[in-house]
Amino acid sequence: MNPLRRLVDSPAFIGSVVAVILANAVVLGLQTYPTLEQSHGDTLHLLNGIFLAFFVVEITLRVAAYLPRPWRFFLSGWNVFDFLAVGLAFAPGLRENATVLRLARLARIVRVVHLLPDVRILITGVLRSLPPLGSMAILTTLILFVYGMVGWQLFSAELPDQWGRSAWRCSRSSSC
């Protein structure tokens, strides 16, 4: 295995990247307080610049770890996401739009998902659970609809104010 590849896959390297991502998250959080931004804005911007430089070096090392075929780096969706999250800081016009710039910085924080396999497993589990949850929502809606129809059939003649047409009209207007 390539020594550079061993370096970027080592727990120490991954741990340092996660630590910098979390420190970047703290700085981004501090920038949301106007008083802190006014009093320490220059320091916070300097720290953002340092973090960005670190991420550029990290991505460069990760791409270089794939030498002599660096294009293989882009075969992984997570690597493409990491590259775009860091590269957005250099997009023309981004520095002028503060909202988009902050979103680009937030994308760097989401990169922690790529670096922590346990988080990836959890996200994969949540995403895989969405279709069955949709099915459960449809089933619940159908059950409630059937119970409503059965209730209407059974009770509309005996309790027309609660179950009949007048109850339906009352729910549609506020004049009842």
Describe what you observe in this structure.
Helices cover 77% and strands 0% of the residues. The chain is mostly helical and 176 residues long. It folds into 2 domains: 3-115, Voltage-gated potassium channels. Chain C (Four Helix Bundle (Hemerythrin (Met), subunit A)); 130-172. α2 (11-30) runs antiparallel to α3 (34-64), α2 (11-30) packs antiparallel against α5 (98-110) and α3 crosses α4 (77-87).
Quick rundown:
This protein has 176 residues and is an all-alpha fold. It has helices at 3-8, 11-30, 34-64, 77-87, 98-110, 112-115, 117-155, 160-163, 165-172.
On the 0 to 100 scale, the average pLDDT is 86
H/E element string? HHHHHHHHH
Task: Report the sheet-strand fraction.
Answer: under 5%
SS-based structural class? mainly alpha
Q: Which stretches are poorly predicted, pLDDT < 50 over at least 5 residues?
A: none
Largest sheet: none
**Helix content, binned percent:** over 70%
By DSSP, the count of extended strands is: 0
Which descriptor suits the 3D outline? Answer: elongated
How widely separated are the two ends? 78 Å
Under CATH, the topology of the largest domain is which? Four Helix Bundle (Hemerythrin (Met), subunit A)
Broad CATH class of the largest domain: Mainly Alpha
Q: Roughly how many Å is the radius of gyration?
A: 27 Å
Please specify the SSE layout and strand pairing:
Blueprint: H1 3-8, H2 11-30, H3 34-64, H4 77-87, H5 98-110, H6 112-115, H7 117-155, H8 160-163, H9 165-172
Helix pairs in contact: 2-3, 2-5, 3-4
